[in-house]
Write a structure and sequence with these properties.
By secondary structure, the protein is mainly α. Helix content is 76%, strand content 0%. The protein has a domain of 251 residues.
């Protein structure tokens, strides 16, 4: 208190609100659990792929990357903090008082920063496990912790600045996703792991200092003794960038809360975008007539001429960047040694767009349903003569139309990644297998106690083909669980975040004990069951497929049976637990 007035009153108010949220206390446990699970899964995966036992520095590097990815994604916590106030029209009321821009900015930043740093503190003890394994020093752990804290604050301040500038949450999320994928992950590998650095070493060395991944890379013990290590310089740059983002957000916020009329060019550009998305009047009329003839809910949910354009653009952009990196003629001797660093962006791109595509399935199926339930519009839909199957079928048709083209693009990127794996084996292992031959070799090895020679080539083939078979099953489970959660949750934005862990998490809970039983049975009771990399991959795919099909059919039965009752009871505060969601 100073002169009877609270210093930074918005900070005090936001901290009090955050202290009453269950997520504030559950987030620390969730992040620690993710780190422990990642440690266990990584250890198992090394054994599954036939690699030597994981060592302390390797495990520490993997845990550091996971913590770094979570730190970069912390920007999503502040990405909509100011924009939601703009959309609801409450931001202007704050500036009718004596509040200034920095009061609001630090009020939105403080609870998320405190929550994120608490999460980092809960993860650090798990990252100390490799110290007990050997090869990791306390100084390295402290440097990594300092670097992660800096990255978290940098990410949060960047998300806050974007929230001040962009009002639409979908556009903000798309821009942040593309920007972070390129700047926080890919650009550092492009600069440091390819011969591009030799073209202009001074420029690219200076550019690397501005990337957050450089801070983490230079904090590691392997880079501590390098003469080119500029960890403290890069750390200071990111601290200055964080302060700059906050200053810019504070300066722009008092002038950005009002909707200002756009110029003639901007208005014409927006009109062109709308015409491209929804089509001209005649095209809109023809499309809507066709959709209405098919299904009324399909007509309500899918009115765009170009559906799923944002996700398709994201996949296309990241795919083009990754392919360009891989296909660029570097003209470097010893091409085999360059395959792994150049191919790493392909793998990251494929995994990122796959998760983005899968996460959009429950969002497309259940998020709009949850919004209608929250506003009461779902009551009107239920009161029509439409049957539940027609309503559900319309949601599936709209989701299929939205995600079909991105799925094709995703398949192309996946094929390219698989081709990179096969090329790596051909060059480094001096083998020339075809795809079907490699898959058949892996399948034989999965059921054999004495796997054939060079069976490792079957591991990427089984992963690729098994992933293709598992993808439609995952879509089935995600879609029905998203529909079920859409008529149960109070907050529509929670539908994707609840559906994805519900589908992707429990298969590991079933697989790990089953694998332990097999290994223990072979060593204790001489069961003589196969246990190699191909066996574990095939077992995981089977367990995941069985679980996802079971979950999907349970959710489907509950939706079709109790849809009207759950949709009309929108004031019930449902507890979203797995056993409650799937209970009859």
């Amino acid at each position: 208190m100073k002169g009877g007035v609270t210093i930074l009153p918005v900070v005090a108010r936001e901290m009090l609100v955050a202290s009453r949220r269950k997520q504030t206390y559950g987030m620390r446990m969730a992040l620690a659990l993710i780190s422990v699970t990642a440690t266990a899964v990584t250890t198992v995966l090394f054994d599954m792929l036939g690699a030597p036992p994981i060592k302390g520095p390797q495990l520490f590097q993997i845990l550091t990357f996971i913590a770094y990815a979570m730190g970069v994604m912390a920007a999503t916590g502040t990405l909509d903090s100011v924009a939601v106030e703009k959309r609801e029209g409450t931001l202007g009321l704050l500036f009718l008082t004596r509040l200034r821009g920095h009061d609001v900015v630090f009020g939105k930043l403080a609870p998320m920063a405190l929550l994120s740093l608490y999460g980092l503190i809960s993860v650090i003890p798990v990252m100390a496990i490799p110290m007990a394994m050997g090869g990791v020093s306390l100084a390295e752990l402290l440097r990594i912790g300092l670097g992660l804290a800096t990255v978290i604050l940098w990410s949060l301040s960047l998300g806050l600045l974007i929230s001040v500038l962009i009002k639409n949450p979908a556009r903000a999320m798309a821009g942040l996703g593309v920007g972070m994928a390129i700047w926080a992950f890919m650009i550092t590998d492009i600069i440091t792991n390819t011969p591009l650095r030799s073209k202009a070493p001074e420029f690219f060395s200076a550019l690397a200092l501005f990337t957050p991944k450089y801070v983490i890379n230079m904090a590691s013990g392997s880079a501590a003794g390098l003469s080119t290590n500029m960890f403290w310089t890069s750390w200071a740059i990111h601290v200055v960038m964080t302060i700059g983002f906050l200053w810019a957000a504070s300066a722009l916020l008092p002038h950005s809360w009002q909707d200002k009329p756009g110029g003639e060019r901007l208005t014409r550009f927006k009109q062109q975008i709308l015409e491209w998305k929804f089509g001209a009047a005649a095209a809109r009329d023809r499309l809507r007539r066709r959709l209405l003839e098919v299904n009324a809910t399909f007509w309500l949910r899918s009115r765009e001429i170009v559906s799923g354009g944002g996700l398709l653009f994201l996949i296309f952009l990241l795919g083009c960047i990754a392919i360009a990196i891989g296909l660029w003629p570097w003209n470097v001797p010893g091409v085999a040694g360059q395959l792994v660093p150049v191919g790493a962006p392909w793998v990251f791109t494929f995994m990122s767009v796959t998760f983005a595509w899968l996460a959009s399935v429950p969002g497309s199926m259940g998020q709009a349903l949850a919004e209608d339930r929250q506003s009461g519009a779902l009551d009107l839909l239920v009161a029509t003569p439409l049957e539940v199957k027609e309503i559900v079928c319309g949601h599936w048709l709209a989701t299929g139309r939205k995600l079909a083209m991105p799925a094709i693009a995703l398949f192309c990127i996946g094929t390219f990644v698989f081709n990179w794996f096969m090329t790596m084996f051909r060059v480094e292992e001096k083998m020339d297998p075809d795809v079907l031959g490699a898959a058949w070799l892996g399948l034989r090895a999965a059921f054999s106690t004495t796997p054939p020679q060079d069976y490792e080539i079957g591991i990427p083939a089984l992963m690729f083909i098994g992933g293709l078979c598992l993808l439609p099953i995952a879509v089935f489970a995600l879609g029905w669980s998203g529909l079920l959660l859409g008529v149960k949750v109070q907050q529509p934005k929670n539908v994707p975040g609840l559906s994805f862990p519900m589908v992707a998490g429990p298969p590991w809970a079933f697989f790990l004990p089953l694998r332990g039983i097999i290994v223990y049975g072979n060593s204790r009771w001489h069961w003589n069951l196969p246990e190699n990399g191909c066996t574990w991959i095939l077992l995981w795919i089977s367990v995941a497929a069985a679980y996802m099909l079971t979950l999907g059919f349970i959710a489907r039965g509950k939706v079709l049976r109790d849809f009207r009752r759950m949709a009309s009871d929108r004031f019930t505060n449902w507890r979203i637990h797995f056993w409650r969601v799937c209970s009859a």
